[in-house]
Amino acid sequence: MFRSIIAFTLLMVLGLVSVWAGMHYQLILKKPVVMTETVIEIKKGDTLESVVKNLRAQQVTVNRLWFRLFAYRKNLDHLLKVGEYVLAKGSTAADILQQLTDGKTRKYSITFPEGWSFKQMFNTIKNNPNLQHTLTDNQLEDLMAQIGSDKNHPEGLFFPDTYFFEKNTSDVDLLKRAHDRMQAVLNEEWQKRDDGVPLENPYEALILASIVEKETGAGEERRKIAGVFARRLKKGMLLQTDPTVIYGMGDDYHGDIRHKDLREPTPYNTYIIEGLPPTPIAMPGKQAIVAALHPDNSDALFFVARGNGRHAFSSTLAEHEKYVDQYQR
């Protein structure tokens, strides 16, 4: 009888403790612990204990026991995702745990505009403090192998866009994403190219698209510009496009092209070399790629800038010279 009373009493105590623990547990999880927006960073090798210490160091007063208990139930001690987490004001311990479980890290962005050179792109990457920098100017030859490219020159191989990434993403990983995106877009559009386009492969399409991109920012002109170059290629005419000359001049270009620059023998001087230059000269956007593969079918062989961001097109040299006199001289 006495033992039965003791056993019953112990069961009652354990029951009450269990109820109290459950209520306390729920109360702790629902109590706001983030008083102001707080950023915590989880680094490679961090443990659940180090995360708790980090939180408490920033006055996020989570209960160490209950927080770890709930985290272990979710197997979070093995699933911590590296990155920065922005904890909103008023977040509870449950909110924090759910955010960590979902791996909802802060995202940063970087933008590469259409028409940029690889040099401009790489300088932007180098100056971004949220990326992990593994490349130097002397290592760019190795970059092509790291991103899986069979090309030796990086120009034009990366798709211009805004990319979102987590803190400490490596520069190589970001460049590989942009490279793979360009390959996907280029290969898809190549399959849909017009019959008779005077291009041997997708890389030549990329080269021509980069020239179109640099020649005009006007969407309605891209196919016209591409058409001029396509017809010139078919006829064996020199492309004679200034952006390629400028690219070939490199750091010697200071805002204008002189007559002697047009006679300077560089691999990119299309006033001298026949056909396309050896590589792209910039990052073309999708519209420029589409234009290069779907040029217009007019008879224009010349164009000249009108000074308003648009061009005057002509099919004869005499008409072209008239437009040059009107808009340039």
Mean pLDDT score: 86
Number of helices: 13
Content of β-strand: 5-15%
Helix content: 40-55%
Number of strands: 8
pLDDT < 50 runs, ≥5 residues: 13-24
Broad structural category: mainly alpha
What's the oligomerization state? single chain
Largest sheet: 2 strands, antiparallel
Write the element-wise H/E pattern from the N-terminal end onward. Answer: HEHHEHEHEHEEHHHHHHEEH
Rg (C-alpha, Å): 31 Å
> N- to C-terminal separation?
117 Å
Description:
By secondary structure, the chain is mainly alpha-helical. Helices cover 47% and strands 10% of the residues. It has 13 helices and 8 strands. The chain has helices spanning 2-30, 48-57, 64-73, 93-102, 118-126, 140-146, 171-191, 202-215, 222-235, 242-249, 259-263, 286-293, 317-327; strands spanning 38-42, 83-87, 107-111, 131-132, 162-166, 169-170, 302-305, 311-314. The strands form 4 sheets. The protein has a two-stranded antiparallel sheet. A hairpin with a 5-residue loop joins β7 (302-305) and β8 (311-314). α9 (222-235) packs across α12 (286-293). The radius of gyration is 31 Å and the shape is elongated. The N and C termini lie far apart (117 Å). The model is unreliable at 13-24 (pLDDT under 50).
